[in-house]
Amino acid sequence: MSPSGDYLAVIHTADHRLVVYYVGGSQPVKIAKVMVGVEPVSVRALDDDTFWVISHISDSINIVSLQQRNVVRTLLVGDEPTDVVFANGKAFVSVSQEDRVRVYDLNDLDAAPTDIPLLASDPRSLAVSPAGNTVYVTALDSGNRTTAIHFEVVDAFGGPPPPDPPMNPALPPAPRTSLIVRHDGAQWLDVLGDVPVLGMISRLVDLCRQTGVSSDLLRIPEAFWIAYLRNNQEAKVEANTADIQ
């Protein structure tokens, strides 16, 4: 929806098009169809004339002018982007296969974007708080508090825990396997509740390795992104949902 509420923009993924309706009257009226990139998956209105379309397979954002009925600029934003939001003069783009949020200056799109790496896998939808000072990121493949240890590392540390119930001694040796472990909020545990040696854990990229909490939702507060964009330094992305109303 455009800021005025007069225009509704929708994406036709299979047809690779943006479709815009005028909804300021008694009935919706289709007023524009614009060809964009391959498999658009999300659209956001910057103003009543400018719509940013995320083209997932094209790895791009197509900026569409409603007045011109055309794409006026294309940004190549990274591998399989999924969403975009606007906050305080910045455009935040989730780049799913790079596990990052890429930030553009709306006043200078020629400037190089700044990346905020996420300790989460496959970021998807974005949202901005009502005050405009927090960006929320959902992650598709994070938050279950589990990871796997490579079988060669498991072997080096004495092998997996014994099966329960015990294995029939007449059977041949069990195959070499990886070990699934789960974080309980304080430490990594195997299926028997024993604590594996932390040095042997080959972790998936998952925020739970930092916080030990479910992290399907990440919170990027304004104070963090301002400091990050200014200094381009590492900082922790909070896994805190307390501010959600």
What does this structure look like?
The relative contact order is 0.11. The chain has helices spanning 151-156, 208-211, 222-231, and strands spanning 7-12, 17-22, 29-35, 40-45, 50-55, 60-65, 70-76, 81-87, 90-95, 100-105, 114-117, 123-128, 134-139, 146-149, 179-183, 188-189, 217-221. The strands form five sheets. The protein has a four-stranded antiparallel β-sheet, with no helix packed on it. The protein has three helices and 17 strands. Among the domains are: 1-76, Beta Barrel (Thrombin, subunit H); 146-205, no CATH class.
Radius of gyration: 23 Å
Task: State the shape.
Answer: elongated
- Give the strand order of the largest sheet, numbering strands 1, 2, ... along the chain: 4-5-6-7
Q: Tell me, what is the CATH class of one domain?
A: Mainly Beta
CATH fold description of one domain: Thrombin, subunit H
> Whole-Å distance between the termini?
21 Å
Percent helix range: under 10%
| Name given to the CATH architecture of one domain | Beta Barrel
What structural category arises from helix and sheet content? mainly beta
Q: Unreliable runs, pLDDT <50, ≥5 residues? A: 200-214, 233-245
Number of helices: 3
Order of helices and strands: EEEEEEEEEEEEEEHEEHEH
Beta-strand proportion: 35-45%
